[in-house]
Every structure is written in C-alpha cells, then in structure tokens.
Amino acid sequence: MKKILIALQFFITLGLLCGSVSSLAIESPDELVKRTAEDVLATVRSDKDIQAGDQEKIFALAEEKIVPNFSFDKVSRMVLGKNWTKATPEQKTAFQAEFRTLLIRTYASALSKYRNQTIEYKPLRLADEASIASVKTQIIQSGGQPIVVDYSLEKQADVWKVYDIVIEGVSLVTNYRSQFAQEIRQNGLDSLVKKLNDKNSAAMAKNAASQNTSTQKVSN
Predict the structure, then answer these.
(1) Are 36 and 16 in contact (CB under 8 A)?
(2) Helix, strand or coil for residue 25?
(3) Which of these, 12, 147, 163, 220, has the minimum number of CB atoms within 10 Å of its CB?
(4) Strand partners for 136
(5) Looking at the 3D structure of the chain, how many domains does it have?
(6) Which strands, in side-by-side order, build the sheet including 159-167?
(7) Cα 127 from Cα 147, distance rounded (Å)
(8) 41-73 burial, b for 16+ CB within 10 Å, e for fewer?
C-alpha cells in the first residue's frame, strides 16, 4: 500500500494528463507522458506557493493539468462495474461528481509532496491502428527501490486519455472497485455517494482552515 501511495503521489506531480494536443498530428501516448510530465514538474519547481502547500494554487493546477485529459466517464464505469448499469442517471451523475472530486483532491495533495523524484520511460510498443496503449515507466527515488508504474490510455477521437494506472501490478481502478463494491453491497450506491461527499467536504473544510491559519500567521 505504501508503494501505491508513493506512486500515486508522483503520478500527480507528473501531470500526466496535462493539457490538450494542439498539433495536427496525433501525439503518441509516450510522447504525451513525457512532454506533459516536464511541463507540470517545471511548474511545481518554479512555484514556491505550491511547494509550500497553497491549496488554492494546487487545486487550480490539478484542474488545469489533470482533468481535461482524464477519462472520468470510462473510469467511473469501470470502477462501479455492474453497479453502473443498475444506477439511475441521477445516481451516475452524483457518483461521478464526488469521485471526480476525490481524485482531484488526491492529486492536488500529491502535488505538494514532490521531492525531485525522476522517471524512466520504457520503449512503447504500439500498433498503427491501436486504440489502447500502455506506457510503462519506473519512478526512481533516492534511497528506495524503483516503483514500476504503467499508464493505461485509450484513444478517443484524436486524443489519448488515461483510464487506469497499474502500480507494481495493482490496478487503481480495481483497487477502487473493490472498496466501493463492498460499501454498495452493504448499504447501496446512495450511501457510497454520501460517504464520498462527507469525505470531500471534510477535506475541503480542513484545507480552508489550514489556509486561514497560514494567512493569519503571515499577517501577524
């Protein structure tokens, strides 16, 4: 679990899902990973507020760099599995909103934890007409073993979007699906949505309080 958390934190600092592709040629999955990683890491390195944990800036960076190229629809369907087909349109909308916030919170938190880790990219094997790709990397960290991280991407129209991360053989989607399925079995989908909402609200309130405390200290 510790390796998963470390890799997830670094995944966010990568900003793997950053930005949109403006060139006419479709950017390959590995090119997307490498280019956008450098973009976000440069932002984190140059912004002292982000390094200090400025939640407003961190959330803004996560929204700008992560959300546009993350396939939340596909991830939501995969995470809920058979429960997705049973859910009402209202339940699907509510779940996606809370799950999206949960992921952004996780990513935003990780942005402030960057400590100069580096990435090694493995050669990409991709057929010309492929619509699914796996970008294989290793996170190199001082004083620890490399962490193997594979990013699963799907080509949608003219862009690639991430829909899963496999860390040391453990799928992020599978991990969430297991957690959520247990809650749904015991208490139903509405209960899961409420718990996610409560968790998100509590985290936001904590962040706001922390930000106010930091502002007061500066003022004093």
Answers:
(1) yes
(2) coil
(3) 220
(4) 150
(5) 1
(6) 118-121, 132-140, 147-156, 159-167, 170-171
(7) 26
(8) bebbeeeeebbebbbebbbebbeebbeebbbee
Query: Can you give the pTM of this predicted structure?
Result: 0.77
Residues forming a β-bridge with 155: 160
Asked if residue 192 is part of any domain, the answer here is yes
**Residue 138 in domain:** yes
Q: Contact 91/38 with Cβ under 8 angstroms? A: no
The two structure tokens encoding residue 60: 């803004």
- Give the model confidence (pLDDT) of 158-209 as tens digits: 889 989 988 889 998 999 999 999 999 999 999 999 999 999 999 888 877 7
Dihedral (CA of 42, 52, 54, 195) sign: positive
Are the C-beta atoms of residues 131 and 29 closer than 8 Å to each other?
no
Inside any domain, residue 159: yes
Beta strands in 79-193 (DSSP E): 118-121, 132-140, 147-156, 159-167, 170-171
- Tokens, residue 69: 């190229």
Domain limits for position 15: 2-201
Positive or negative, the CA dihedral 184, 5, 173, 27 is positive
Q: What is the CATH number of the domain that holds 190?
A: 3.10.450.710
212 lies in some domain: no
CA 88 to chain centre: 26
User: 167 with 35: CB under 8 angstroms?
Assistant: no
Q: What is the pLDDT of residue 177?
A: 95
User: 168: alpha, beta or left, given left = phi > 0 and alpha = psi -120 to 50?
Assistant: left
- What region, left, alpha or beta, does residue 164 occupy, with left being phi > 0 and alpha being psi -120 to 50 degrees? beta
